[in-house]
Amino acid sequence: MERLPKWADLVLVPLVSLLLAAIIAAIVIIAIGQDPWEAITVMVQGSLMDGYGWGYTLYYATSFMFTGLAVTVAFHASLFNIGGEGQAQLGGLGVALACLFLPWPHWTLALLGATFAAALFGAAWAAVPAYLQAKRGSHIVITTIMFNYIASAVLIFLLVDVLRPDGQMDPATANFPEATALPTLNQIPVFNLFFTSKVPANVTLLIALAAAFGVWALLWRTRLGYSIRAFGKSEDAARYAGINPFKITMIAMLLSGALAGMMAINNVMGEAGRLLQNSASGAGFIGIAVALMGRNHPLGVVLAAILFGFLFQGGAELGMWTKIPIEMRVVVQGLVILFTGALDVMVRMMLTRIFAAFRGGRAAKGAV
Amino acid sequence: MAHSGYAIELKGISKAFGPVQANKDISVAVPKGTIHGIIGENGAGKSTLMSILYGFYRADSGEILINGTPTTIPDSQSAIRAGIGMVFQHFKLVQNFTVLENVILGAEEGAMLARSLSKARKVLGDLSREYELDVDPDAVIEDLSVGHQQRVEILKALYRQADILILDEPTGVLTPAEADHLFRILRGLRDQGKTVILITHKLREIMETTDNVSVMRRGTMVGTVKTAETSPEELAELMVGRKVLLEVEKAPPTVGRTVLSVENLSVTDEHGVIRLKGVSFDIKAGEILGIAGVAGNGQSELLEALGGIARATGRVTLNGADLPLSGAGADGRSRRAAGIAHVPEDRQHLGLIMDFAAWENVAFGYHNAPEYQKNALFMDNDALRADTARKMERFDVRPPIPTLPAKSFSGGNQQKIVVAREIERNPDLLLIGQPTRGVDIGAIEFIHKQIVALRDAGKAILLVSVELDEIRSLSDRIAVMFDGRIMGFRDPETTDERDLGLMMAGMTGKGEAA
Q1: Does the pLDDT at position B111 exceed 90?
Q2: Which helix (DSSP H) or strand (DSSP E) does residue B342 occupy?
Q3: What is this model's ipTM?
Q4: Which of these CATH numbers, 3.40.50.300, 2.40.10.480, 3.40.50.720, 3.30.300.30, describes B6-240?
Q5: With a CB-CB cutoff of 8 Å, which residues 203-222 of chain A face chain B?
Q6: A227 in contact with B, Cβ within 8 Å
């Protein structure tokens, strides 16, 4: 019945949740006999204090933006797309095929072509679960999870038996042609003032930000977005309004798959320059947490993606410079997801009570 | 001291939810052995007050006296111990238990059931004889009619030795005959010395059944009067705070050509149950056809089939053109394009997206309309908000804030948003289900006027309502539905409640019965 003020709901709740996650993480670090203060110092130093650290943080964040947006679009249609991981891997396949087998004269054209291929392959991988959900009622959560495994197996087969160049040991494609290399932030004017050394974050970051804006405009400014949101709130009401449930389920999932697939231009084309096994490396799943924490709003997704980028990069630094194992970053991620995603109701209730008490106290004082 | 003439005295009860004062300094005394009505619009605070009495909420201040003794009621167990029984609007029965099992549920004595069951069987037998509460103790709840289920709820309360029985909107789901039976039971209980509190928004029930009536408005108690000394008009005025027209004013219809023609329309639901069994009727321009019937007899499916929501078979023509009943073109969008507007029975479930703002809901179903588009790509949200503000003003939606989510409006104002959206499209055919369910008296008057105005503008209207009074006062022709069929057509001028009630219960009505 009592309500939190909006600013507290949007800002304070995630901050308190994060703080709680950090406290528990600190306890865990103490429990394994390490110094939590050292840990946080190393994490911040390595990811936020210079252009080099930011270059990695933003590189990870770019991937998480795409997968977070993918979950967001599906979520507004009340579809829980767990398949971002598989869709991103298929997107990687699309990027690899486009880069390897088409002659690109310049990276801008290659980027356009690869983006299209990534979106197409990602969408195609989401299409089957979407169809099964829309026509047969097979639960999207189950089917998209299964499709992650299938994607992984398909990619291993292709990388080992089909795309691997003769004489190469590791299951990966050949290196992409030089013309398809995307400029990293240190190669882009203006950005290079801050990013002075070579960083993996690349021009894809701008595409991710544009995608976030596009998703916002789509959901809140277009008929299609209106239909998606209405369908997501109530399928029966949507049917009353003449919104076709089959169509909306398909479109929302195809968009979601396309966004997840587009992540591949960041890691496969922008960073690795070839397609490796397990290219998405968990970003598809982190997208779920990013969307949860970002409250399924593109702006929130962008901010949450940067936070997770920091955790990822900071966690890697931990493994490098301290005795704290790199797996600690999985623990910290898990805690962040737990507190911001699953337990934020608890935090909200707690804050609501504090606010109510504060307000009650003020009202009582006013009455005297 | 302990003895007084009052079963319940409430003194200065107040209860606030955050900034909302649901009950303000409420005092009321209910004499023992009477039927006491409590009426008020939605949100007047009736339910809050009764929830305080039954221990669901605790009052912020005030005093409760039961039989003259000050009593605190922190939970419903205490309420039961104090002799208060409650029959909720939505029954709280275990569907696959027998009557007997439901009655002892929560009042079992000991770990083994046999003793409680045999005791309950005896008590139930006595109660049934005493109060006309006959129910087969071994019947399973889901096999019982709604009226019988309600009797089980009353038996549950009496088995727990309730002296004070509170009934919350008890007749919403009953046929007129079942309602009459209920009132006979209530009078019987009163005559045996029990005290009955009847919460309802139906003035007629208050007038027929109660001894005294208390009127609530916006969280306050505006007055308690003897029923014999008041009139429905006075009560309505007390409830709303202004004079209200209870009767619908309408001129005789000027009927034109046939707008809607329905032949042998049938609907089978997803479980394979036939819900609508071949109904046929016509509606002409300038005519209101009212569908009477107890809820769940195929009326919803009729509306959904015509509104393009449910798949159907048969033949339907609108202005002479066939409407597809399944496959492509059998959807809400095509129906709207054809000139059919639909105010669904369940506005919260179908008619509105509760989390959407009012302006988003005004576009609902019409989000493809050209006037709401800025260009090929984007919707014109500013135009939509302006249009919503206009509609809100014309239909007196309060508060008139287009950006407020639908769930923040009262039931009546939510309904006004839906009705405004659909009627302002100036449809050839308006499908309207339960137009005033959960709507305040003041808003009922307004919505009825809008329906009549549309009919006078030469449009066809299909009205579905479980409120017989509403059907009788609005319709130019009445069809009664039972078990998916139309039992017959009646002229509202010549029929009476008994006749309609028989048809609603599946009997063929006076012509055939005689």
Answers
A1: no
A2: strand B340-343
A3: 0.86
A4: 3.40.50.300
A5: 217, 221-222
A6: yes
